[in-house]
Amino acid sequence: MISLAGRDILHAWGKFVFTGFGLGLLIGVTLTMAGVYRGMVADGRALIDNSGADLWVVQQGTLGPYAEPSSLYDDLWRDIAGIAGVAAAANVTYLTMQVARPDSDVRVMVVGIAPGMPAGPGWPRHLVAGRQITRGHYEAVADVKAGLRLGERIRIRRKHYTVVGLTRRMVSSSGDPMVFIPLKDAQEAQFLKDNDSIHSQRRRTLENPAFNRPGVPGVAEAVIASQATSNFVNAVLVRVKPGYDVAEVAESIRRWQRLQVYDRAQMEEILVGKLIATSSKQIGMFLVILAVVSAAIVAFIIYTLTMDKIREIAVLKLIGTRNRTIAGMILKQALALGAIGFMVGRISATFAAPHFPKYVLLIPQDAVAGFFIVMAICTLASLVAIRMAIKVDPAEAIGG
Q1: Domain spans of the chain, in order of start
Q2: Residue 174 and residue 268: Cα distance in Å, rounded?
């Protein structure tokens, strides 16, 4: 009966191949959607790994610098660095924004890193070209995904920066490439206002009677001077000394500094369990819809192929062919259709993945699971056609 199923496929090979190709494109979309979810998880974990931190110290009551806004004074790192078990502590700022290029804009996460710590927490890793930042201002290191080149000048807020280094796989949890600049420049870009706002704020300060009290000169000038600088960061990244328990060091920081502290497991839960949770549910709904549509397509084409050979099935029954044999022929056709579709889908997903704006991670486990799911869908979809074939009356081979 394998030969019979093969002969029937060859008889209508055009319809069979084109249907398998269309099903394969649908399966390719399904595999790509699963790869998008895997890529989002991989981006979140890469963000944690590339930070080089064991602990994230953030504003109390917040979920950290990636999921919620956090603001800390930039001198807190000194107190944290003095706690037992802390090997290194570094300020960092994160700001997602559009960076201006001469010909276009690119959306990136601008990261402000503390000077003088090239191997410290927060600094860019995986340098593939150029060098690290060595000056206190106007230099940048960018991820290759941003499309920037060495020596290219970009504008962040009101200042221009020269790209001196390129990295790879330094991205935010949403897949945006990172651009690293000196901390002071990043603080100014994130926290300071534009010139008109600064002028308006200074005028309000000078007109405020509370800052122009008789006998207390210079109060307004001191307030204006403080407004001209920014002394806030989003987080302090902490690296723990070998031999010390991370949980104990985190508890010491919470107790003495009254700040929120997350370790790597907690930060991964925030990124994957909270930030990506909604997206994963949406992708899951799409996968269910695509699976239902795939089953409907397979059921329709197998039903159509079976309807086209009603008389042939009646002849087989007339000469004594068992229902089990006829059902096996239809099932094998459905499985062959699924196998063709899966091969086309796997190939199309592999070639399409690099062209997506987000990172698409195709793993072998998903491919294996997808293959068995496709085979199961094809098996279920063939039941309608099998049921109809079993009910065929052998007398139809003689009539009409």
Answers
A1: 2-44+277-397, 60-192+230-258
A2: 14
